[in-house]
Automatic annotation (TrEMBL):
It comes from Sphingobacterium hungaricum. Keywords: Hydrolase, Signal. Residues 43-258 form the Beta-lactamase class A catalytic domain. The keyword Lyase does not apply. This is Serine hydrolase.
Length: 300
């Protein structure tokens, strides 16, 4: 109970008007120029954790999460671990009835294969595995329970829609999940600062989030020797990413979400993905003027 009160207090601190964030005017102008010709809806939130300065575009607007919804699912699973209802080494048996299309490896498991929760979480985050993610969502109590948890933690607009009773209309509009750029960035900040669940569990979530198979967007635009946590999301008309970078001059976080994109193509030339890479490199070179980085061409 005391831990929950502390979390609610921290959430209020983030949202209260008296704690208004100072805008980085120069960066704000750079971002506005970068996105002015984007053919779709876009939201961006950037925060330098050392200076506490921000830049934002439609940062409180609700967007589709696509696979970024797997971050709140992760939190839901770890809340169950915190309450001794799940364990990372807990064993489960995979059934071919769980096959679900899209990204991931678990759909290729043999029927009756044994796995454990740690493997499922790793597949959900690293390979954005849909079968593992739906399994984790169920183990976390389902979308409704995850949504209640998100509200308690101060994330009023971050919701799981898919397979969640009462959210059918939201599912039709946003897909699997919905959030705002600022909320998703703030979720990463609380995990980084070990202020979300417990320091030990936040540290473990951070370690899971570091291992990304899909590293051709924002991660490709910072030096490979730099640590970062990241999650991307992709469906035809929506692309998004949230990333927190442990840069030499201080951590920074940003979230880019897009909807109603005219370019629905798949591949590295997709307009939203190209823009995401440009913004990621812009931010690295902006925050790290002494460590300028020219990335390699993205490998196909």
């Amino acid at each position: 109970m005391m831990k929950l009160r502390l979390i609610l207090f921290l959430s209020l601190l983030f949202s209260t008007p008296t704690m208004a964030q100072k805008t980085d005017s120069k960066l704000q102008k750079l971002l506005e120029k970068e996105v002015e010709n984007f053919r779709g809806d876009i939201g961006i939130y950037v925060k330098n954790l050392k200076t506490n300065k921000v830049a934002k575009i439609n940062s409180d607007t609700i967007f589709s999460t696509a696979s970024i919804v797997k971050v709140p699912i992760l939190v839901g699973v770890f809340d169950k671990i915190n309450n001794n209802q799940l364990q990372l080494n807990q064993k489960f048996t995979y059934s071919e009835k769980q096959v679900y299309g899209g990204s991931g490896l678990m759909q290729f498991f043999k029927d009756s294969s044994e796995t454990d929760l740690s493997t499922m979480v790793s597949l959900m985050l690293s390979y954005s595995d849909n079968v593992a993610s739906l399994w984790c969502q169920d183990l976390a109590g389902g979308g409704k329970e995850i949504n209640v948890l998100m509200e308690k933690l101060g994330f009023a607009h971050t919701k799981v829609n898919s397979r969640t009773l009462g959210r059918e209309s939201d599912w039709k509009k946003y897909g699997w999940g919905q959030t705002t750029p600022e909320e998703m960035a703030r979720l990463f900040i609380l995990i980084r600062q070990q202020q979300l669940l417990t320091p030990q569990l936040d540290d473990k979530m951070y370690r899971f989030l570091k291992n990304q198979f899909y590293n051709g967007r924002s991660l490709s635009q910072i030096p490979s020797t730099i640590n970062a946590i990241d999650k991307t999301g992709s469906v035809d008309a929506s692309r998004g990413e949230v990333i927190l970078v442990n840069a030499p001059s201080g951590d920074y976080v940003f979230c880019i979400l897009t909807d109603n994109n005219q370019d629905k193509s798949w591949g590295n030339t997709n307009e939203a993905e190209v823009l995401t890479r440009k913004i990621s490199n812009l931010l690295w070179n902006y925050f790290e003027p002494k460590n300028q980085f020219t990335p390699f061409q993205v490998v196909e």
